[in-house]
């Protein structure tokens, strides 16, 4: 299975040059018909329509997800960007809830505009 990626300039974080971690200001998303990785993000317009330098919207539409695990970072976790996240949740689509590695880590408490709400079944 071949995985292709689209690399985006990530606008919500700032590179932290005071750390040994070297984040370059980008975020890569798998795309294409067949890819091994799952992420909750959607691009508008879709990846095949984008060219280098284009502007796009990236979002996580309202989605029901299984939380595989939760991590609290005290102090905030140093990942090479500021503001550093204060928590992380590993989310998995419900159809893959039994597959621990079939998800994506979302970092919370930093600048990424992610909102998480618990739902009742």
Regions with little confidence, pLDDT below 50 for 5+ residues: none
Number of β-strand runs: 9
Side by side, the strands of the main sheet go 6-8-9
Main beta sheet, described?
A: 3 strands, antiparallel
Gyration radius (Cα, Å) is 15 Å
**Count of helical segments?**
0
Mass-distribution shape: globular
Q: What share of the residues lie within helices?
A: under 10%
Strand content: 25-35%
Structural class: mainly beta
Series of H and E elements:
EEEEEEEEE
Let me know the average pLDDT. Answer: 88
Terminal CA distance: 34 Å
Counting structural domains, the number is: 1
Notes on the structure:
By secondary structure, the protein is mainly beta. The chain has one domain (4-108). Helix content is 0%, strand content 33%. It contains no helices and 9 strands. The strands form 4 sheets. Strands 6-8-9 form a 3-stranded antiparallel sheet, with no helix packed on it.
């Amino acid at each position: 299975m071949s995985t292709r990626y689209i690399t985006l300039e990530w606008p919500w974080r700032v590179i932290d040059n005071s750390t040994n971690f070297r984040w370059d200001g980008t975020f890569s998303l798998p795309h294409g018909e067949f890819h091994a990785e799952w992420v909750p993000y959607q691009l508008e317009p879709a990846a095949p329509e984008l060219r280098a330098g284009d502007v796009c919207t990236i979002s996580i539409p309202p989605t029901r997800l299984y939380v595989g695990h939760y991590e609290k970072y005290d102090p905030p976790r140093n990942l090479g960007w500021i503001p550093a996240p204060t928590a992380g949740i590993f989310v998995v689509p419900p159809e893959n809830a039994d597959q621990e590695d079939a998800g994506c880590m979302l970092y919370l408490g930093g600048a990424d505009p992610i909102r998480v709400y618990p739902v009742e079944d």
